[in-house]
């Protein structure tokens, strides 16, 4: 598995739009081979996401296709600052499925 960690500072007043666009974008990327993502919020309009992919090639191919600019262009406009973008290869997986 390949994962990407993101941290963003979102513009004041755009938090709800950011969350909605992130959700729509994540769903669009699932159709491109993503294994989903989780979004977290910390202090001062900071959002963190952890996205999972089968491998880097699948992620890179999905991003290269520039899918859904109607979602991703306004998503990027909500971001005041991209703080982190960290790419990681899985070493060991001890996550468990979240009970529903």
What order do the helices and strands come in, and which of them pair?
Elements: E1 2-10, H1 15-30, E2 37-41, E3 46-53, H2 56-64, H3 69-77, E4 79-89
Antiparallel strand pairs: 1-3, 1-4, 2-3
Helix pairs in contact: 1-3
Question: Any descriptors?
Answer:
100 residues, alpha+beta, 4-stranded antiparallel sheet, globular
Explain how this protein is built.
β2 (37-41) and β3 (46-53) form a beta hairpin. This protein has helices at residues 15-30, 56-64, 69-77, and strands spanning 2-10, 37-41, 46-53, 79-89. It contains three helices and four strands. It has 100 residues and is of the alpha+beta class. The protein has a four-stranded antiparallel beta sheet.
Outline of this structure?
Helices cover 34% and strands 33% of the residues. By secondary structure, the chain is an alpha+beta fold.
Number of helices: 3
| Lateral arrangement of strands in the main beta sheet | 2-3-1-4
**Helix content percent band:** 25-40%
Q: What is the average of the pLDDT values?
A: 95
Tell me the major beta sheet.
4 strands, antiparallel
The low-pLDDT segments are none
The class by helix and strand makeup works out as alpha+beta
Query: What is the number of strand segments?
Result: 4
Shape designation: globular
Strand content: 25-35%
SSE ordering: EHEEHHE
What integer value in Å does the Rg equal? 14 Å
């Amino acid at each position: 598995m390949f994962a990407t960690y993101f941290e963003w500072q979102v513009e004041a007043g755009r938090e709800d739009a950011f969350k909605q666009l992130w959700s729509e974008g994540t769903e669009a990327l699932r159709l491109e081979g993503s294994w989903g993502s989780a979004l977290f919020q910390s202090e001062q309009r900071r959002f963190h996401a952890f996205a999972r992919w089968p491998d880097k090639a699948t992620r890179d191919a999905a991003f290269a296709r520039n899918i859904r600019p109607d979602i991703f262009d306004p998503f990027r406009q909500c971001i005041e600052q991209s703080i982190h973008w960290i790419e990681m290869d899985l070493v060991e997986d001890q996550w468990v499925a979240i009970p529903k």
